[in-house]
């Protein structure tokens, strides 16, 4: 049997397995991340399932290790609570990338099996282990049963013959493989890589190559551990481990012999990891960059950090370029600190963040914006994967060199002077004076509508428009999130109608300066907000946005009830409750407020 067949057979009731057979396999490590972990918990709870073996079951929080996103923070806490109930270990947000943790902790090693909600779990092939990313239903079943069904894949053997060229990094190796096989020639295969030079590959290099099996369409890229890696795994596991290797007469569907000596330094062009070109070729023509990212499960190891430090030492990032560096794990981060790499990175002008996945999966560091050109060590550059800009994939050395040069290049070609963006003033972009409003655009000074009477003080801006929605800048998209964090009014946006009037009590809009907390009401067509008092910043924001607001002393004179129909005159301050014909006076618009309101806003 070949390597994948050996591993699967050892974890099943079968002595021999063959491609195409569907078998149940025992899973040594069953993990879930913050991305998908909460759904795993939901599946278990909804189906009244218990955890088969808590000692083999783990949470790894790596997608958003800063907890900076509310949705991630909620999911992480759901997982923590479940872990406490079930006695499950959590590798929390201070730990780093989960698949790397499994290797560091000696949980994954030669011949072992693991599943997790990470599509790059096949990275474990770096130590000769079977690792697979699976959906939350699969993972929940693995947690409950300890086993999953799996179809034994066909296998391919790749021989890298000849000498490794000088300066060819592990990332270059996998980009050359992508150039050779594309995104689907190895689709569905388990791949084993061999060669005299391959046996010399370090653990970090094997991790880089195995991590991009997914981008090649492979089930997994497996390496047979050398003596050094077996010693590493045994020390981390705390016991002597046995090497699991393919039989000498193993059968492969295909065998490819590649000339290693022809491999070149390459970069993937935006949108397709397999669309690779030589980095110093004419196809790139010194493409200027806005940002660089070094990290991810592909290139966040200590050897990657060392290569980066070597390039950045005594250099600075080019003007107009932002370089972001994220070590893969806390262990790597600590070693960077001990070796002085963090100091080198900071002196070069880079941003260094805590360990984690970073730019992948909309993580905490490494995203880019529309029109931004990034060179990244990540494994994917699909549109939208690392943001809304364009992403080139390259080695840590190339990314660091490009950040210093200001354009895509290699360390040996860094220029004496970096490229600089032209910030010359363009008079054509200068704003022009707005035309005067016409009579047809005049705004009413008296409005009439249905009342929402919310009898609460201190309704803050997070209750009005929560910070998890602050990336929304289009006012037309803000309405549905109004009051969705105000207890009892989470469905306000669904029930509100254009023309409604909101009446609240003291200190409405306290908190942050976010304009969305005003504009969300405009998006819903709310005509006016009445309050006993407003937060100072909120008051200014509303007036400047021509969102009518007024203060009142008490609603007792008009005996106001939720759902009443009232009219409000901004010039006089008169309020009439048409449901009972009672009247009262509120504070009318000031001269400035009325002028801005009639103008349609401050601008």
Describe the structure.
The structure is a single chain. By secondary structure, this protein is of the alpha/beta class. It folds into three domains: 3-262, Aconitase, domain 3; 268-413, Aconitase, domain 3; 439-599, Aconitase, domain 4, CATH 3.20.19.10. Helix content is 27%, strand content 18%. The protein has 18 helices and 25 strands. Strands 22-21-20-19-23-24-25 form a seven-stranded mixed β-sheet, covered by helices on one side. A five-stranded parallel β-sheet has the order 4-3-2-5-6, with helices on both faces. Helix 6 runs parallel beside helix 7 (203-210) and helix 10 (302-312) packs parallel to helix 13 (396-405). The radius of gyration is 30 Å and the shape is elongated. The model has no long low-confidence stretch (mean pLDDT 93).
What is the element layout, followed by pairings?
Elements: H1 3-10, E1 22-26, E2 29-33, H2 37-46, E3 57-60, H3 70-86, E4 89-91, H4 98-104, E5 113-116, E6 130-133, H5 136-145, E7 147-151, E8 155-161, H6 170-181, E9 190-194, H7 203-210, E10 220-222, H8 227-237, E11 254-259, E12 266-268, E13 276-278, E14 291-294, H9 296-299, H10 302-312, E15 322-325, H11 330-339, H12 341-347, E16 351-352, E17 373-376, E18 390-393, H13 396-405, E19 446-453, H14 461-464, H15 492-495, E20 501-503, H16 516-524, E21 528-531, H17 536-544, E22 549-551, E23 565-569, E24 574-577, E25 582-585, H18 591-599
Parallel strand pairs: 2-3, 2-5, 3-4, 5-6, 8-9, 8-11, 9-10, 14-15, 14-17, 15-16, 17-18, 19-20, 20-21, 21-22
Antiparallel strand pairs: 1-7, 12-13, 19-23, 23-24, 24-25
């Amino acid at each position: 049997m070949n390597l994948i067949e050996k591993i699967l057979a050892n974890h099943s009731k079968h002595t021999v397995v063959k491609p195409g057979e569907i078998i149940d396999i025992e899973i040594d490590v069953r993990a879930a991340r913050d991305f998908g972990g909460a759904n795993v918990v939901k599946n278990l709870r909804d189906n009244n399932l218990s955890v088969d073996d808590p000692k083999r079951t783990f949470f790894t929080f790596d997608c958003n290790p800063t907890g900076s996103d509310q949705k991630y923070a909620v999911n992480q806490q759901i997982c923590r609570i479940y872990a406490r109930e079930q006695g499950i270990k959590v590798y929390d947000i201070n730990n780093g990338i989960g698949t790397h943790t499994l290797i560091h902790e000696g949980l994954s090693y030669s011949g072992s099996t693991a599943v997790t909600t990470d599509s790059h779990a096949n990275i474990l092939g770096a130590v000769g282990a079977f690792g697979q990313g699976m959906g939350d239903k699969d993972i929940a079943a693995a947690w409950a049963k300890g086993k999953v069904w799996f179809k034994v894949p066909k296998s391919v053997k790749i021989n890298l013959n000849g000498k490794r060229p000088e300066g060819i990094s592990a990332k270059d190796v996998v980009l050359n493989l992508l150039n050779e096989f594309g995104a689907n020639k190895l689709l569905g295969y388990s791949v084993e890589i061999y060669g005299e030079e391959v046996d010399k590959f370090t653990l970090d290099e094997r991790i880089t190559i195995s991590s991009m099996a997914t981008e090649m369409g492979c089930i997994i890229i497996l390496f047979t551990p050398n003596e050094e890696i077996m010693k590493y795994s045994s020390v981390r596991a705390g016991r002597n481990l046995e090497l699991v290797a393919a039989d000498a007469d193993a059968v492969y569907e295909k065998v490819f012999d590649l000339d290693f000596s022809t491999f070149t330094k390459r970069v993937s062009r935006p949108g397709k990891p397999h669309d690779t070109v030589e980095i110093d070729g004419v196809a790139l023509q010194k493409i200027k960059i806005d940002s660089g990212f070094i990290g991810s499960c592909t290139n966040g190891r200590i050897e990657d950090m060392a290569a980066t430090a070597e390039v950045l030492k005594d250099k600075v990032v080019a003007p107009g370029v932002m370089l972001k560096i994220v070590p893969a794990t806390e262990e790597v981060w600590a070693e960077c600190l001990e070796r002085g790499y963090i100091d080198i990175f900071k002196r070069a002008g880079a941003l260094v963040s805590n360990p984690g996945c970073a730019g992948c999966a909309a993580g905490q560091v490494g995203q880019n914006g529309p029109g931004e050109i990034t060179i990244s060590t990540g494994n994917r550059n699909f549109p939208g994967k690392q943001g809304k800009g364009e992403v080139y994939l390259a080695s840590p050395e190339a990314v660091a060199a490009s950040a210093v040069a200001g354009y895509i290049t290699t360390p040996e070609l860094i220029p004496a002077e970096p490229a600089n963006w032209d910030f010359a003033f363009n008079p054509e972009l200068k704003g022009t004076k707005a035309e005067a409003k016409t009579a047809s655009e005049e705004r009413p000074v008296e409005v009439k509508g249905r009342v929402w009477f919310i009898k609460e003080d201190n309704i803050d801006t997070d209750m009005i428009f929560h910070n998890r929605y602050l990336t929304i800048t289009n006012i037309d998209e803000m309405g549905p999130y109004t009051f969705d964090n105000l207890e009892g009014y989470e469905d306000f946006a669904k029930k509100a109608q254009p023309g409604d009037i909101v009446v609240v009590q003291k200190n409405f809009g306290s908190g942050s300066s976010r304009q969305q907390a005003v504009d969300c009401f405009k998006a819903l067509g709310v005509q006016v907000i009445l309050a006993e008092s407003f937060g100072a910043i909120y008051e200014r924001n509303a007036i400047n946005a021509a969102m009518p607001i007024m203060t009142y002393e008490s609603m007792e004179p008009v005996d106001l009830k939720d759902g009443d129909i009232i009219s409000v005159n901004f010039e006089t301050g008169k309020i009439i409750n048409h449901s009972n014909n009672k009247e009262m006076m509120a504070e009318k618009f000031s001269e400035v407020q009325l002028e801005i309101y009639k103008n349609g806003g401050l601008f």
